[in-house]
User: What shape does this take?
Amino acid sequence: MALILTEQQTLVRDNARAFLADKAPLAQLRKLRDERNPDGFSRQLWKAFAEMGFCGILVPEAFGGAGLGYVEAGVIMEEIGRNLTPSPFLSTSLLGATALLRDRNSARNGELLPKLAAGDLLLTLAVDERTKHAPAATALTAERSGNGFALTGDKCFVVDGHVADFLIVAARTAGAPGETDGLTLFLVDAKSRGIEIERTIMLDAHNAARIRFNRVEVDADAVIGEVDHGWPLLDALLDVGRAAVAAELAGVGGEAFGRTLAYLKQRRQFGQPIGSFQALQHRAAQLFTELEITEAAVLKALQVLDADMENSAMVVSVAKARAGMSATLAVQEAVQLHGGIGMTDEFDIGFFMKRARVAQELFGDVGFHADRVARLQNY
Amino acid sequence: MADLEQFRTQARAWLAANCPAAMRLPLEDDEDRCWGGRNFKFKSEGQRLWLERMAARGWTVPEWPREYGGGGLSREEAKILRAEMRKLGCRSPLDSFGIWMLGPALLKYGTPEQKRQYLPPIARGEIRWCQGYSEPNAGSDLASLATRAEDAGDHFLVNGQKVWTSYADKADWIFCLVRTDRAAPKHLGISFLLFDMRSPGVSTKPILLISGKSPFCETFFDNVRVPKGNIVGEINKGWEVAKYLLTHEREMISSIGVTAGRPLGQVAADSLGTDAGILADTCLRADIARFEIDAFAFRLALERTGDLAKAKQASPAISSMLKYYGAELNKRRHELLMSAGGAEALEWEGQRSRGGDAARSWLRSKANSIEGGTSEVQLNVIAKRILELPGA
Assistant: This one.
């Protein structure tokens, strides 16, 4: 398969680009932050996402979705990155939809997927428990209790955790933290007794929460996938999240670079545009190169998720690591090359630096993925 | 798609039946490469056979037209052939500046007669070419070159000096930039000339490098007679041909770091050992993993650039980006190989280090960001042609 967008994928990207630039520009994020909006995203925008077919982008047409793939979802993520649009697209349309679709529970999917595609249902994945991403270290326990399980433990960095209707929770039903065996995924109603949700205001003004589970009782049919053998599904879900965040980071980095390049051509010092100085030209050229190479890795990761999800680990880790590194470089150069104005809250470029920092950490930073690459190659 | 799968099956079967076992082992060192040419001594019967069989099928140049000795394959088929060769571990049957650089330029700018004369011997590995570009006073500022070709009626008389001519002492023919109009602005007085290195007046002198080897030469021309029909493209318009060829040279250099050798992690694991599957030197492990991430992504960028070019969506200046990054990547790879090799890799002579092979390759790799246009020149090209920054 050629490593370029198809005509249909280009169309999706162009639609998303025009739609987001119009309905969800960066000014919207600033406004939500400044008014301390309790949702942290615009529900009106989410309705418009549904009308555009974005909410159910992965959901088959039989369930009211668009029936498209990860490349299409990824190009939307990239545009989200360009506009820093806060929305439940990652948590619900990518992670939530993938979990349900991979589970193939037809009764549950028949009920939930149409709602998801209509923008009436928000889901998210609750996996991290500690300072750094370490899914195998999951310690939150699910003990057998009555006809089901009781969940006890803490989750953090749960994207959209305070607005989600359902939480997909990684829990330990056997084994010890650090082992990939013994994990099970549960679909838990966020309003269940025993759940305490604390919204955490993050530096990028995007949504996250800490969630405490105090013996939260769930039925046996809350299990997604297999009891004790949830790791392959969890890892696949995380790879979807990682590739999606990589695509978002490609957008964040690309936009930060585009704004910086425009500034280099416009800002004059010493009687000439600062972009005429070779010291800055070379930095711009190096950054361009890093971003272009990342773009290829991100597109490949999305293609592999569509074609051959079982073999996605290597290319997804490469994409996430590359996207984290190149977006980090892009936002650092963006603030530096904008000079003093880049340090002001009034000017927008700082928002890109903040989002890149959070997205870099989400679902594993460069160090996590470098370690994963080394393990996959046996060293 | 079904046709492509059929092609894959057939290619795999043919390679399995025809690639000699010894040609499926990784290259021990640069001496194992097959360069062909009038004076080439094959290292083994397997090496000779492999070249002969691949050339007969047109697969030394899979995408060239069949009439010029190529395989006539589509881009997709050639991709599949390369992938199948990688899977079997097949060595390249023929390394050649004729294939990588001159061939594409002739296909674009050559007359039908020139194509018929020069391309098939390149495909068969019969004629080895060298590149006469750089001069003592024309490095990064290549267009200021001074070697001149004067009109002497039915032929040119060439006088001057080239430098950094790779393997000039082993090459049969040279493609050479010469000044044919000294009054014109520097880019507009250059022609692209082909001639036999056996012509009277041509001499070469190898240059000893920091690696202890001499892959480059000084090349001198003293009243060399060259037939007028040996110009490629129009007279005084050789710069256009030269630049087009440079994009291919850049692509060639850009891919050396990601197509060569065993995976770094394995080399390091063999050298330093592992602890519960983790490389004993954890700092080096992290550096190698970051390199592998960049190399993996860079391979994809090479693939994507080819796909974009085919879809006519690529800027020609992208070759500068690939050259810049690929050269830096290969230098990083050799730094890591030296770290992984430790004290043993420092032995300049003797069996243990195979004659200091890793060290010599490490030193040789430093030229990657100089030859074919320095990294700094590539960044200038990106800034000017792609980013359109002012006054670059």
Q: What stands out?
A: The beta strands of chain B are 129-132, 148-151, 155-166, 173-179, 190-196, 202-207, 216-227, 231-232, 274-275, 278-279. The CA atoms of residues 149 and 317 of chain B lie 30 Å apart. The radius of gyration of chain B is 22 Å.
